[in-house]
Amino acid sequence: MIMRHKMNRDRKETAYFCLTVGLIIFTPIPLLGQCIWIEKTHFDFTDGWEYFYLAGDTATQWDEAQLRRWELGGYIYAPIVGGLRIIGYDWDLNNDHWLDVILGRREYGQVDIYWNSALGFDTTRKAVLEGLNAFPQGFCVADLDCDGYEDIAIAEYDNKVHIFYGSVNGYSSNANDSIILNSEGVQHPLVADINNDGYLDIIVSAQYRVYFYYGPGPFHTLLPADSIASLSVWINRLNLSDLNYDGLLDLTISHSSGLDIYWGPDFSSKITLNASSNSDHSVADLNKDGYLDIYINHSDYYSDPIYWGSATGFNNSSNLAGNGGGDCSIADINGDGELDIAANQVGAGAGYIIWGPNFTSFTSLPLDNYQMQVVNIADFDDNGEKDILFGGAGASAFLYWNNSGFSPGNRFAFPDESDDAIWEDLGNLWDRSNGERYLSNIFDCGDTITVDSVKWWGNFPPGTAGLVWARGKLDNNWSQWKLLSNGGTDPVLAGKRFLQYRCVFQSDYKRTTEFSFDSIGFYYHPAGISEKSGYYNPLNFSITPNPFSSTIIIKYFLPAGIKLSLKIYNSCGQEIKVLTQGYYEAGCHSIIWDGTDNHHKRVKPGVYFSRLEAGDFKELVKIIHIGNL
What we know:
Elements: E1 34-39, H1 42-45, E2 49-53, E3 67-70, E4 76-77, E5 85-86, E6 101-105, E7 110-114, E8 126-129, E9 136-142, E10 151-156, E11 160-164, E12 177-180, E13 186-192, E14 201-206, E15 209-213, E16 226-229, E17 235-241, E18 250-255, E19 258-262, E20 270-273, E21 278-284, E22 293-298, E23 303-308, E24 316-321, E25 325-331, E26 340-345, E27 350-355, E28 361-366, E29 372-378, E30 387-392, E31 396-400, E32 411-416, E33 418-420, E34 435-439, E35 443-444, E36 453-459, E37 464-473, E38 482-484, E39 498-507, E40 516-524, E41 539-544, E42 552-558, E43 562-570, E44 575-584, E45 587-593, E46 606-614, E47 617-625
Antiparallel strand pairs: 1-40, 2-3, 2-34, 4-5, 6-7, 6-33, 7-8, 9-10, 10-11, 11-12, 13-14, 14-15, 15-16, 17-18, 18-19, 19-20, 21-22, 22-23, 23-24, 25-26, 26-27, 27-28, 29-30, 30-31, 31-32, 34-39, 35-39, 36-40, 37-38, 37-39, 41-42, 42-45, 43-44, 43-46, 46-47
InterPro entries: FG-GAP, FlgD/Vpr_Ig-like, Integrin_alpha_N
Domain FlgD/Vpr Ig-like: 563-610
Protein name: FlgD/Vpr Ig-like domain-containing protein
């Protein structure tokens, strides 16, 4: 039984202190009055949900029957440093605004990162990750250490998962961290915050079991906290989704005798779908009926089933024409608003696209090899159309360019033995759109206070966006959702006792590690209390240079004398340096940080936070230390 900690979803006060991730730009803002509800820390956000609304994001009046919601941790999580972030959505590994390709080379025991650019791919323009003793068998990317740089977890088939941590200087050629398992057949690492504690975890299969390694790292110091046995059958692909709509994440496992669905929260019970010799599966709402379906790719059979979800489970299935597939991916490939399936046709040495919504017609793409591997779908050339990467064991991997369709003459070949790649599909689980969604818990203001304004903050680099709505009710009837401005003050929800907000986080999959939703606050103006008593804001708070290599200057202006503190924290929320604390008179002030800690030792390059507390005002600014150049 997997013992997963579950947060109490009733609103409650918390005494925990957490930092909030994100680059905050300090400028004068309107005084908002008294704050009745603020969401900022890890513990604030964990009582919310990931969600999907069947009628779409623009619906302003909800029919609750069309709402699907489930616990955090699969695709959005609340890091221990605060705020909300997306998990593993970044395929631009050098932050140059182009999606890159990661391929494992079976015979060389290495992984190559091919750097994309406006000129496309070049087989000589790459980084090489080495130190593997056996062939790589699946990768995943995620910011495991919450430092703003994407990390790569690589399954080595013999008995390891290697972790290459990203940094401002890129990736080291050898692994920074390794998990050693007492079993061979290691493949398909999956990253999630499975116990909702604010740290990303690694889930990995090895031969006949699935293992859970809980963060924070370094993971080589940890033993697997839990594992699942799968009845002495060889395990392949793993996925997380809520398949019985109870609000809990379930685990689906492809294996040599079928497909198991282990029900959350503890994965102690399961059902098995008949799909012997399947090598991969993918989950999505393929027919748009409001229930998740499962497409299964057989490894040695000539038909691939879709198990259709319903209110009563997976009672119906359809068999699609296949030819001994290997791996699969789902996306709207031709932009017609319907999901399509791309898979490997191992028995014929080809890849194929099964076109939705009927899945009765398909397009075959030659691959020059009979043992193909992972399928990736993404817009690699940034022309607005989705391209398809097919990995190949024993021959080249091929990237088919989509220029209003596919043709054998319009593809790019990667070197021989470039077989394995990232196993996760890009896009939302339900419809593969480029948005993940968060729904807050309901907050009760009490019967004597109603809010009149709301304000939220976030950091959205180019290519990402955040949309936030709020609604309220006095009795049983919710108001319409109102779209809120980013960083502005919105006069909304007057006269409402119960409050709720929702967010849609959009991404082009290129700078997602820099994305964060930081905080949201709801305010009111009680009779007899002035605005000035509710919010105190130091002005013109600035840090230069940022990023820095040796020293930075922190400046701030105080309109009145006040007691304050200014401290530096690392990305895990640990205090590194007390810069100053005490009473300061009104006026301009500055202080220098020389990059040392409280013990006068130089800190390592990475992400840090400067926290200023002055009266009721508490805020952070993100600092990037790049080391001596």
